[in-house]
Amino acid sequence: MTANAPDFDAAFFRSALGRFATGVTLITTQSHDGPQPIGLTISSFNSVSLEPPLVSWTLSKKAASLPHFEKAERYVIHVLSAQQLHLARRFATGSQEQRFEGIEVGRSPNGAVMLSDPDCAAWFECYNLCRHEAGDHIIFIGQVERCERSFHQPLVYHAGDFDLTPSHEPLSGD
Ligand SMILES: Cc1cc2nc3c(=O)[nH]c(=O)nc-3n(C[C@H](O)[C@H](O)[C@H](O)COP(=O)(O)O)c2cc1C
């Protein structure tokens, strides 16, 4: 059996998908041919499994950073807070050099490039466990080795825009 052809176009599909609100992440790793930091904005992050701890995200086959993430041993997924909107915008355009200009980077416990910014809502250090081809994207499955979280209000993406939900009080605990 095979799937029926869609009765909608790509623009309508994108608009329908946009009704699903997501958080926003910034994923970093190291260049495959040097120590340069690589990073981009990703909203396709998802939890997959608690034991073992697995997460997923998808990367366009057209992304310039794809070869770096395919070869990376580890990467760090930063869940952005509402006060990091500027980072979400900056890491979705321009060159890698422009994205990291003036940005302080450090290393995760197992040595992956990560942001030093304390304003992240959470971060997950991932071993690059496996990848699956799916249409025009690659699905990355990461095995989480270390993670940390704060209770900053998260950045929210919805209908192609950032919805900061400013009336919400920051969470104070689990
Ligand atoms: C809020 C937001 C979410 C995004 N989510 C994704 C995503 O899940 N997957 C993806 O491939 N690109 C996503 N992008 C687009 C990339 O950030 C953008 O294409 C970036 O320039 C790719 O960088 P690169 O070409 O250096 O790899 C998103 C952009 C924004 C603003």
From TrEMBL:
Gene Ontology terms for molecular function: FMN binding; riboflavin reductase (NADPH) activity
| Key words, A-Z | Oxidoreductase
Q: What is this protein called?
A: Flavin reductase (DIM6/NTAB) family NADH-FMN oxidoreductase RutF
Q: Report the source organism.
A: Pusillimonas noertemannii
Which residue intervals define the domain Flavin reductase like in the entry? 17-164
Q: Which SUPFAM superfamilies match?
A: FMN-binding split barrel (SSF50475)
Entry superkingdom: Bacteria
Homology family = Belongs to the non-flavoprotein flavin reductase family.
